[in-house]
Amino acid sequence: MTGDQEADCTCMVVIQLSPSSAPMRGSRILEDGNKKAIQCARKKELLPEVTIKQENQFYFCVITDLYIYIYYFSQGHDTTAVGISWAIYALGLYPDIQVKVQEEVDSIFGDDHDRPITADDLKQMKYMELVLKETQRLFPSAPFIARDLVENLNVNGYVLPKGTTCIILTYMLHRNEEVFANPEKFDPERFLPENCVGRHPYAYTPFSAGPRNCIGQKFAFIEEKVMLATIVRHFNITSLDQRDKLEIKMEMVLRSKNGLRIRMEERRKK
Ligand code: HEM
């Protein structure tokens, strides 16, 4: 991006990048002489060249509204897509829970099966939200997060030296039986407000935590609710494989090696 183009931008923001972990997970800063650009890991596309300055161990860059758009949405596609897939799978596996979700959705839409979903409808989908949270506990879209230590860190008397890459396995964290009794049980009611009292805020972190947590989490649940409500309004779901038959893969997002096989049947035959 040239200086002229920068001047044309309607919105300019300065973001902070750490040298080894660029702003998007898996993306990196490419250096070619004095030129630097940001490369996304997944599609290897090169974002427009940005002006990157270095200060101490951090890079700063001026970015545009276009870049924010790409950055914001590129973070949210896979995570939300697999979040929806796992939620469909969970509903298909636990018919009692699916019936409760359908009852809630039916109570909102009544006999109108085609009315578009409104923001008010989404607010009423309270049980659905518990299901989505429990889905993210057992099947976190982002199964781990990583950080480079920029200074020594003392963890329970063990010093992790500066420069270490630390990986937090969200997938395992969410299975801590001291926090989540009977952790493998899919139980959305764990997330009823009264059942969350006293739970450590970092015991459940599907959207990470701290200053670099997910800025799209509310939007993600909106997308998920719209998709799921649309599906359960029209279909009954059955999952064809039990959990012990799945081969879980921890890539950038959590996947099942052979996919998630489901059967869908129309609720009201025409
Ligand atoms: C179920 C869906 C989603 C999950 C589970 C999820 C999870 C996460 C996690 C764990 C991080 C932190 C990564 C890290 O610390 O290394 C993150 C960051 C981020 N997410 Fe999401 N995300 C979801 C959906 C979305 C959506 C829909 C958007 C935008 C439309 C979005 C935008 C972002 C952005 C921009 C960041 C980086 C924030 C920063 O670095 O300061 N995410 N997400």
Q: Tell me the CATH superfamily of the largest domain.
A: Cytochrome P450
Helical residue percent?
Answer: 25-40%
**Given the C-alpha coordinates, what overall shape results?**
elongated
Beta content: 15-25%
Strand order of the largest sheet: 1-5-4
Biggest sheet record: 3 strands, antiparallel
Cofactor: heme
Subcellular location: Endoplasmic reticulum membrane
Pfam families: p450 (PF00067)
Keywords: Endoplasmic reticulum, Heme, Iron, Membrane, Metal-binding, Monooxygenase, Oxidoreductase
Offer a concise description of the structure.
This is Cytochrome P450 4c3-like. The chain is an alpha+beta fold and 270 residues long.
What does this structure look like?
It is a single chain. This protein is α+β, with helices and mostly antiparallel strands and 270 residues long. It folds into 2 domains: 3-69, no CATH class; 76-266, Orthogonal Bundle (Cytochrome p450), CATH 1.10.630. It has helices spanning 3-8, 65-93, 95-109, 119-124, 126-138, 170-173, 193-196, 217-234; strands at 12-17, 28-32, 35-39, 51-55, 58-64, 145-148, 153-155, 158-160, 165-168, 235-239, 248-250, 254-256, 262-266. The strands form 6 sheets. Strands 1-5-4 form a 3-stranded antiparallel sheet. A hairpin with a 2-residue loop joins strand 7 and strand 8 (158-160). Helix 2 (65-93) packs across helix 3 (95-109), helix 2 packs across helix 5 and helix 3 runs antiparallel to helix 5. The radius of gyration is 22 Å and the shape is elongated. The relative contact order is 0.14. The model is unreliable at 1-28 and 39-46 (pLDDT under 50). Bound molecules: protoporphyrin IX containing FE. The site of protoporphyrin IX containing FE has 23 residues, from helix 2 and helix 8. This is Cytochrome P450 4c3-like. Its main location: endoplasmic reticulum. Keywords: Endoplasmic reticulum, Heme, Iron, Membrane, Metal-binding, Monooxygenase, Oxidoreductase. Its cofactor is heme. It comes from Limulus polyphemus (Atlantic horseshoe crab).
